[in-house]
Amino acid sequence: MDGIAGAERVKNGILLRVETPSGVKEVLFGFGELVGMKINALHLLQYPQKYLCDPGTREIRRRHGNRSEESAVKFPE
After folding, report:
1. With CB atoms counted within 10 Å of each terminal CB, which end of the chain scores lower, N or C?
2. In terms of pTM, does the model score above 0.70?
3. In a domain, 70, yes or no
């Protein structure tokens, strides 16, 4: 899975710019495809850096970042 450099709304869906080891590739996903993958299109447009994409398999998924100890919510004992 590769990082997404940018996302743009086009007539037929969302055009993603994906940073692959061989360079930047543009991949178009229709709104129906995104719904089928349970991807929120508006969130993808606003925060493309929070997603990963595999242009070969045409798969998108949320990037899961680990929270550091400092940013984690701490409850009193």
Report:
1. C
2. yes
3. no
